[in-house]
Amino acid sequence: MSITPQHSSGRHARPPVVSLSVRAGAVTHTGLVREHNEDSYLAADPVYLVADGMGGHREGAQASRTALAAFRSLLGTGAVDQDQLEQAVALAARQVDALGNGTSAPGSTLTGLVLSRQDDVPCVRVVNIGDSRTYCLRDRSLRQVTHDHSEVQEQVDAGLLTRDEARHSAVRNVITRALGAGVGPHVRADHSLVPVLAGDRFLICSDGLSTLVEDADIARVLHAQPDPQAAATTLVERALQAGGSDNVTVLVLDVLTAEPSWAGARSLERTIPTTVSVDHDDTTIPRPSLAAPPASTSGSDDE
Ligand code: MG
After folding, report:
1. Number of other CB atoms surrounding residue 301 within 10 Å
2. What is the pTM of this model?
3. pLDDT at 205
4. Which residues of 277-300 are buried (b: 16+ CB within 10 A; e: fewer)?
5. Cβ neighbours, 10 Å, residue 35
6. pLDDT digits (tens, 9 = 90+) for 96-115
7. CA-atom Rg of the chain in angstroms
8. What residues sit around ligand 1, an ion, with C-beta below 5 angstroms?
9. Residue 165 dihedral angles phi and psi, to the nearest 5°
10. How many A from CA of 247 to the centre of ligand 1?
11. Which alpha helices (H) appear in the chain, and where do they start and end?
């Protein structure tokens, strides 16, 4: 993506040229237990998102697709600002909520990023609702950028569980925030601003990867596979080798160029938490257990 330069007020100053280009690879797979894929992803400039639908039968897949459809108006628009992102999240919340009826309330997680700029440096704006995850690999260190909205995460935060214990918990599927799922049309999203450097690699995935494959193994694959599509394929294979008990979706995004470089961008601590809405508190949203009837239609990329 080339980001339109922002003009400087200086009479003789040349406007900074801000550029950010990326390359992505993505794979979604039904897994080895479920009959249908309720995950979806969207990977097209400047929007890179994964959604994990829930609700059973066709409804979960419809929910994840509906969530991502709310971002289609941003495709091809260049840098996405915070207002545009929040408006798209709010639209996703309304439209997934509207799928519900008297007998069902399909829902979806949502995580990932949009390409953006802040103060004339390239950055990404990360969004999260639920327990799908966005990671950043920088300087050979893999860090989870998002914070899961799940019961087990709350127990980890309270010091009652380790991350590894959380991965094996019987209640690991219970999330505390979602689009739809009977929560209503207003959903609070986590946002963070991450300045990017050439060489950064982002991983966006559903819990079908992060529950089955340890972060250290994920990092090893991301280090070993320079091609993003090959890395995504290998990570999905790892999840299948680990049992493939859930739908699994992996999106790997490499930052090829990011100019000008942000001198302070060596830290991921520069995050700007904001909220879309605070109309309700977190609630408990049980997801279908692995033994529940599988949902229908396969996750999609860009139909
Ligand atoms: Mg899942």
Report:
1. 15
2. 0.85
3. 98
4. eeeeeeeebebbeeeeebbbbebb
5. 10
6. 999 998 788 999 999 999 99
7. 19
8. 52, 206-208, 246
9. -65, -35
10. 6
11. 59-69, 82-97, 151-157, 163-168, 207-210, 215-224, 228-241
